[in-house]
Amino acid sequence: MSFEPKQKVELDPPKDDAISLDYLSKCDGSHPDYPTYVAIKGTVFDVTGNKAYGPEGSYKVFAGKDASRALAQSSLKTEECRPEWEDLSDDHKKVLNDWYTFFSKRYNIKGKVEGASNM
C-alpha cells in the first residue's frame, strides 16, 4: 500500500474535538446535512466527497463508525466494523496502522470518538 497520495493533499491541522457515537452514526454518507466520517482507532477522519464511502460506495460499510477491526482484517463485513482491535494478531495490527497512516495523509482529522481508547 502506498501511503503518499498521488497529489499532495493540503490538510487542516488535526482537531481534538470529542465526537459522540450518536453523531458519528449520522455521518454515514446517507444524510445530506451531515459530513461523512470514518473512525480508525478512535480518530475521526472526514471522508466527505469520496464516493467510495457514500450510500452506493464499495466502502460504505465503514462510514459512520469506528471500523478499526474490519480495516485491520481487510473485511467488508458489517459485524466486523467495530472499534475493538487490541486482541488482533500483530499482522492485523500492522495492517490497521498502515490504514491509519493512509487515511492521515488524505483526510482531515475531525476529532476523537468519545470514550475511545487511543493507540
How would you characterize the overall build of this protein?
With 119 residues, this protein is α+β, with helices and mostly antiparallel strands. It has a single domain, classed as Cytochrome b5-like heme/steroid binding domain (Flavocytochrome B2, Chain A, domain 1), CATH 3.10.120. The chain is built from three helices and four strands, in the order βαββααβ. The protein has helices at residues 21-26, 68-72, 90-104, and strands at 18-19, 37-40, 43-46, 108-113. A four-stranded mixed β-sheet has the order 1-4-3-2. The model has no long low-confidence stretch (mean pLDDT 93).
Task: Please give the radius of gyration in angstroms.
Answer: 13 Å
**Discrete helix count:** 3
Instruction: Could you tell me the CATH topology label.
Output: Flavocytochrome B2, Chain A, domain 1
User: What is the structural class?
Assistant: alpha+beta
SSE order, one letter for each helix or strand:
EHEEHHE
The largest β sheet comes out as: 4 strands, mixed
GO molecular function, one term: heme binding
Family: Belongs to the cytochrome b5 family. MAPR subfamily.
Domain Cytochrome b5 heme-binding: 19-114
Organism: Friedmanniomyces endolithicus
